[in-house]
Amino acid sequence: MDTRKILSGLCYFSIFFAPFLFPIVVYFVADDSITKEHAKKALLSHLIPFAAIPIAMLGAMAGAGSDAGFVIAILGMGVYGILSVGVIIWNVVKGIKAIQEL
After folding, report:
1. CA 94 from chain center: how many Å?
2. Per-residue confidence in pLDDT tens, the chain, 102 aa
3. Who contacts 40 (Cβ-Cβ below 8 Å, separation ≥6)?
4. Of 33, 40, 62, 78, which has the most beta carbons under 10 Å away?
5. Angle, helix 67-100 to helix 3-13, in steps of 10 degrees
6. pLDDT at 98 (0 to 100)
7. Distance between CA atoms of 68 and 96, rounded to whole angstroms?
8. Alpha carbon of 7 to those of 16, 32, 42, 94: distances in Å?
9. Can you give the residue range of the structural domain that contains 69?
10. Which residues cross the membrane (predicted)?
11. Could you tell me the sign of the dihedral formed by the alpha carbons of 48, 49, 54, 58, in that order?
């Protein structure tokens, strides 16, 4: 199996063991442009769920002390959970595809 395929797949699978560190290291160490592209995509996909955290925090602060703030915070946590599960599934699929590339 080709080293490029293994590194590209591991960038996506790193969501389970080193979500930010591994793709960054591969991006700066790899010489192959395809591997760098996979590392960049994997890193960006690992960051997607964290976009919901500031939204939930701002909503909770805006409605602090009221039921609306509580509801917005709960919705933000729900969105974070859904995004996290979606990103994990997407990374597994992309990791398998990266390993199977011709």
Report:
1. 12
2. 688 899 999 999 999 998 889 999 999 999 889 999 999 999 999 888 887 778 767 766 766 667 777 777 778 788 888 888 999 999 999 999 999 985
3. 23, 27
4. 40
5. 170
6. 92
7. 42
8. 15, 10, 11, 12
9. 3-100
10. 6-30, 42-64, 70-93
11. positive
pLDDT for position 96:
94
Query: Pick from 88, 77, 86, 81: which is nearest to 55 by CA?
Result: 77
Please provide the DSSP assignment of 3-72 as one string. HHHHHHHHHHHGGGT-TTHHHHHHHHH---HHHHHHHHHHHHHHHGGGGHHHHHHHHHHHTTTSHHHHHH
Tokens matching residue 40 = 């960049």
The span from the CA of 93 to the CA of 58, in Å, is: 33
Per-residue pLDDT at 68: 72
